[in-house]
Each structure stands twice: as C-alpha cells, then as structure tokens.
Amino acid sequence: MAVAITAPERLLVELDPSTIRAGESAPVETRWQDFDGDGRQELWLYFDVSALGLSPGATRLEIAGRTRDGRLVAGADDVIMVASGSDSVTTVVDRGSSAPDK
Description:
This protein has one helix spanning about 10; strands at about 1-5, 15-20, 30-35, 40-45, 60-65, 70-85, 90-95. By secondary structure, the chain is mainly beta.
C-alpha cells in the first residue's frame, strides 16, 4: 500500500522516515516522487498491508512519526478494507488518491 505525505517541502525534509509507522507497520520502502504533477516532491511510503494490524472492518488508518529533532507528527485518512475470500485483509483502498507506479 502506498501513502503520500504531502506538505510544503521545507516541512517534509524535517521528517525522519525511519520513525514513521502506519498501524503497527514500518514502511518497507520510501521514496520522493511528484504525486500530483505540481513539480514538488512528496514523500511516498510503501507498507505491507498484512503487517498493518487492521481488521477487515477498519475505516481509518493512522500514521505517526517524528521529525529529525524529535517532534511528534501524526495524521489519519479514511480507508476501505477489501478482504479476500478467506476473510484475510488483502488491500487497503484510500478513498481519494492513487499510487504512482513503482
């Protein structure tokens, strides 16, 4: 699952990607990429959905981390959980954005 962190670049560069968690999971990959074609780089975080610790009925995903000087940063977004036939969570669908090609 991909998550874009969008904010002014001067704020994004203060984030410490190694501290960011979504649910119970650390990102398996991070990258800088222009999400919306505005010429500014956003921080993309890729998570293993099975490691998020979310139930199939979950509707909100919270993300938290710290800046390089230790300040807490947190946010959340509405999600739709999609389960496979075996009732295990297979994907999280954000209600309003799409991920760039990896």
